[in-house]
Amino acid sequence: MTILVRTETPDDHDAIRSVNKAAFGVSVEADLVDRLRADGDLLLSLVAEGENGIVGYCGFSRLIIDANDKHANGVSLGPVAVLPREQKHGVGQKMVREGVARLKAMGETLIIVLGEPAYYSRFGFDVAAASAFRTPYDGPYLQALRLSDDAPAGGDVRYAAAFAGL
Ligand SMILES: CC(C)(COP(=O)(O)OP(=O)(O)OC[C@H]1O[C@@H](n2cnc3c(N)ncnc32)[C@H](O)[C@@H]1OP(=O)(O)O)[C@@H](O)C(=O)NCCC(=O)NCCS
């Protein structure tokens, strides 16, 4: 199947909910995306579209990193979701790679993700690179990807308000 990764449009909102609910089996991530969007906190919102419609979703939201009385921008990756019947065919990787490339082109310097290192390490995400950041999700699943040498090296990470509802 040919897959196109593109920015979401308002016509995609229902399909994005369906993809997230089908992939995760609960409504938590679908609700999170709706709240992030309503709050204006979705920095980049990508869908993967096949011949029969939307099969994948990948969202990125703004993070603020506080260090030494200064505030720097970062980006949170997630949720990433692919319809169960379409999983393991490269859709997730295509969305993440497109998102990372676009964020780099936008001048973003740091992306943080909470997820399986076995999956996210293929994109360059690294547990060690996240060790100097303090988040509500610290632990072995927190990983960071530095997109430039002037990326923040550490600090206290503030997620978008929607994450507090999780
Ligand atoms: C995780 C997910 C987005 C990956 O998308 P996908 O299109 O199925 O994955 P891809 O085809 O791009 O990549 C397949 C590879 O990822 C690996 N993989 C998939 N899910 C994984 C997981 N949870 N942990 C570790 N590896 C995983 C596969 O084993 C495969 O590895 P290989 O390339 O070494 O064979 C998708 O499986 C999904 O929607 N899962 C349910 C929701 C979820 O857990 N999302 C991630 C948390 S935000």
From TrEMBL:
One of its GO terms (molecular function) is acyltransferase activity, transferring groups other than amino-acyl groups. This is Uncharacterized protein. It comes from Pseudorhodoplanes sinuspersici.
